[in-house]
Amino acid sequence: MTTAGPASATRVAASTSPRIDRGFDTDLAIAFMKAAAHPQRLSILRHLASGEKSVGMLELLLQKRQAAVSQQLARLRQEGLVVNRRDGKAIHYSLATPQVEHFVRCMQEAFRRQP
Question: How much is the pTM?
Answer without folding.
Answer: 0.76
